[in-house]
TrEMBL record:
Lineage start: Bacteria, Pseudomonadati, Bacteroidota, Cytophagia, Cytophagales
A single GO cellular-component term on record: plasma membrane
InterPro entries reported for this sequence: Ala_DH (IPR008141), AlaDH/PNT_N (IPR007886), AlaDH/PNT_NAD(H)-bd (IPR007698), NAD(P)-bd_dom_sf (IPR036291)
Annotated Alanine dehydrogenase/pyridine nucleotide transhydrogenase NAD(H)-binding domain residues: 176-324
Keywords from the named record: Oxidoreductase
SMART domains the record matches: AlaDh_PNT_C (SM01002), AlaDh_PNT_N (SM01003)
Protein's name in the database: alanine dehydrogenase
Class of this enzyme: oxidoreductase
A Pfam family per the record: AlaDh_PNT_N
Length: 403
């Protein structure tokens, strides 16, 4: 070896055998967080802490001014996290990925650009065919909160929001039961006084968390569901003996007639909740008793239900108080925003690492179920059948795009 070669080797100029470079598929995302225009929707999908992590990983986040105020996050919080604060909906909708809470309304469609990916709630019963036609006209890829699955085939957004709803419904029930226009009773039980009777329809997450709260207050609880295995799982999760029953018209009717509070939390497998409590059953309830229809975003479990808002949350039918607000978790927007952010941050980071939304969907088949439309075509069979629209299987679309 010559003196030059020895010097080159020592100074790292000498050629070395290296591993072949692996091609990076890192993709920079442009994420838009618009201010919600739906009535009394105060949640936001990403916290400032989550935005800071995204920015550090090379992504750009645009936040419409005031978007986080309802959840107690200021513009300066987002600005300090590295987000760009924009002052009009048009600027925020220039992003190629829009992350919001409520579905689009007419005025927001005017700002939506071609080929956008939209992640939001779907709230199917609130829509008509024209909503999906507008999305398809703009070649939007729509991903619904309610339909997103995780690796364990669970519904992470539904689970998280249901945990909150289950904890909140007992507070709501107690508020209306004890009010001057209610039954004037305490929710729970005290020495020498019969406990409040609570009926919960559906043995899912809402029921689980509502039952924990009700048991702590000393209420008398009965749980109904159409599936025995869900009741078995429910009793195991609660860890104590509670009354459970398969949905039977006579047994359920008797329980509702005696109840002070009835909570409907039975979700449908096809996007629409089953109606299990009839008008006649409601008419036999105690005057000033309370119905809380948590399933109202899917149509509701009560024949007498109709959708309400946080501004006007209740109405009466047969002198029974009905609370039918679809976005119950919006009552605690700071907590709800943190929960949503915890779900979406890992997904967005992985999306950027893999190489974009298309690659993310292809690599995570479990996430595909959240996609209800893709670049001009409905990919959700139930929606397509409901509105008699053209349908394509998303797995086939993405598979064909790989070749």
């Amino acid at each position: 070896m010559t003196g030059f070669e020895e010097l080159a080797k020592q100074t790292a100029l000498y050629p070395k055998e290296l591993s072949a470079a692996v091609k990076s598929t890192q993709s920079s995302l442009l994420i838009g967080l618009p201010k919600e225009v739906s009535l009394q929707e105060n949640r936001i999908a990403l916290t400032p802490e989550a935005v800071a992590i995204l920015v550090r990983n090379g992504h750009e986040v645009r936040v419409e001014t005031g978007a986080g105020v309802g959840a107690k996050f200021s513009d300066s919080d987002y600005s300090e996290a590295g987000a760009h604060i924009v002052y009009s909906p048009k600027e925020v909708y220039e992003a190629n990925l829009i992350l919001k809470i409520e579905p689009l309304v007419d005025e927001e469609f005017n700002h939506l650009k071609q080929g956008t990916t939209l992640i939001s709630a779907l709230n199917l019963p609130a829509h008509e065919r024209s909503y999906f036609e507008k999305l398809n006209d703009r070649n939007v890829t729509g991903i619904a909160y309610e339909l997103i699955e995780d690796k364990a085939e669970g519904l992470p957004v539904i689970r998280s929001m249901s945990e909150m709803a289950g904890s909140i419904v007992l507070l709501i029930a107690g508020e209306y039961l004890s009010s001057a226009n209610g039954r004037g009773i305490i929710l729970g039980g005290i020495t020498g006084v019969p406990p409040t009777k609570v009926v919960i329809i559906g043995a899912g997450t809402v029921a689980e968390f509502a039952t924990r709260a009700a048991l702590g207050l000393g209420a008398d609880i009965k749980i109904f569901d159409k599936d025995l295995y869900k009741l078995q799982r429910f009793k195991y999760a609660i860890g104590t003996s509670v009354y459970t029953s398969i949905l039977d018209s006579d047994t359920l009717s008797e329980a509702i007639e005696r109840a002070d509070v009835v909570i409907g939390a039975l979700r449908g497998d096809d996007g629409r909740s089953p109606v299990v409590v009839t008008d006649t059953m409601v008419s036999r309830m105690k005057p000033h008793s309370v119905i809380i229809d948590v399933a109202i975003d899917q149509g509701g479990n009560f024949e007498t239900s109709r959708m309400t808002s946080h501004k006007h949350p209740v109405f009466r039918v047969h002198d029974v108080i009905h609370f039918c607000v679809p976005n119950i978790a919006a009552r605690v927007p700071h907590t709800a925003s943190m929960a949503l952010s915890n779900i979406f941050l890992p997904f967005l980071l992985q999306t950027g690492t893999i190489g974009g939304i298309e690659a993310m969907l292809y690599a995570n088949r479990w996430f595909m179920k959240g996609v209800y439309c893709h670049k001009g075509t409905l990919t959700n069979l139930h929606i397509a059948r409901t509105f008699n629209m053209r349908y394509k299987d998303l797995a086939l679309i993405l598979g064909a795009g790989r070749f």
